[in-house]
């Protein structure tokens, strides 16, 4: 995935170096974006570099699809993966990644130890009998697994349901604007969707 990101950034930097404006399409690397990219006037050596990067992106996409298929075939029969996929926002890749990061769950004596393993526990700073100061999260632990959990949380926050309603209330409490179409939000809430 990092290599894909690096290749995409190199294509963007070539376009930027030649003062070509941003792609008008949502994704430069989908069919419409690639058609737009092919129509841009570039020197021959830069065009060859972009073509080479796009071919490498296609090859990586095929490899990743094959890996995803193999992971799915191995993980779909695992009861822990199936149980995790019942959580809103957790897909097969996230569930398989979490199970792989945890390994044998019995090695954790308590849920707090598992939370600490992922670095999701808030640190407490206190000296003697003074006031305890609680931080956000420690971020000490399995960063890759924590990143997967964060992505799952964002997906759950966007999906209709009680988690979405909670997320909207928290954002409103922190001063973020309400949705662009307040009538839509109120109709969704009255229908029990948000």
Please provide a written account of the structure.
By secondary structure, this protein is mainly α. It has three domains: 1-75; 78-157, no CATH class; 160-194, no CATH class. Helices cover 61% and strands 2% of the residues. It has nine helices and two strands; from the N terminus they run H-H-H-H-H-H-E-E-H-H-H. Strands 1-2 form a two-stranded antiparallel sheet. Helix 1 (2-17) packs antiparallel against helix 3 (44-75) and helix 5 packs antiparallel against helix 7 (143-158). The radius of gyration is 23 Å and the shape is extended. The relative contact order is 0.07.
Query: Which structural category fits the helices and strands?
Result: mainly alpha
- What value does the Rg take, in angstroms? 23 Å
Helix content: 55-70%
Strand content: under 5%
**How far apart are the first and last residues' alpha carbons, in Å?**
33 Å
The neighbouring-strand order within the major sheet is: 1-2
Mean pLDDT: 85
How many domains make up the coordinates? Answer: 3
* C-alpha geometry: extended
Order of helices and strands: HHHHHHEEHHH
Major sheet description: 2 strands, antiparallel
**Strand runs, count:** 2
Number of helical regions: 9
Uncertain stretches of 5 or more adjacent residues:
180-185
Strand-helix topology:
Layout: H1 2-17, H2 31-38, H3 44-75, H4 79-84, H5 92-102, H6 111-118, E1 124-125, E2 133-134, H7 143-158, H8 162-173, H9 182-190
Antiparallel strand pairs: 1-2
What characteristics describe this protein?
194 residues; mainly alpha; 3 domains; two-stranded antiparallel ribbon; 9 helices; 2 strands; extended
């Amino acid at each position: 995935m990092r290599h894909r990101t690096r290749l995409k950034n190199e294509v963007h930097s070539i376009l930027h170096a030649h003062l070509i404006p941003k792609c008008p399409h949502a994704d430069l690397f989908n069919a419409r974006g690639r058609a737009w990219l092919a129509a841009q006037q570039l020197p021959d050596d830069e065009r060859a570099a972009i073509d080479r990067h796009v071919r490498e992106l296609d090859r990586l996409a095929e490899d990743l699809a094959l890996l995803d298929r193999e992971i799915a075939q191995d993980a779909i029969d695992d009861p822990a993966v199936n149980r995790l996929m019942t959580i809103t926002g957790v897909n097969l890749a996230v569930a398989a990644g979490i199970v792989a990061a945890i390994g044998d769950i019995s090695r954790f004596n308590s849920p707090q130890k598992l939370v600490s393993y992922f670095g999701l526990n808030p640190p407490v700073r206190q000296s003697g009998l003074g006031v305890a100061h609680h931080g956000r999260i420690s971020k000490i632990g399995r960063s890759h697994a924590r990143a997967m959990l964060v992505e799952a949380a964002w997906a759950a926050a966007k999906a209709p349901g009680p988690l979405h309603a909670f997320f909207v209330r928290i954002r409103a409490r922190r001063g973020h604007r309400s949705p662009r179409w307040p009538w839509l939000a109120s109709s969704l809430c009255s229908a029990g969707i948000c």
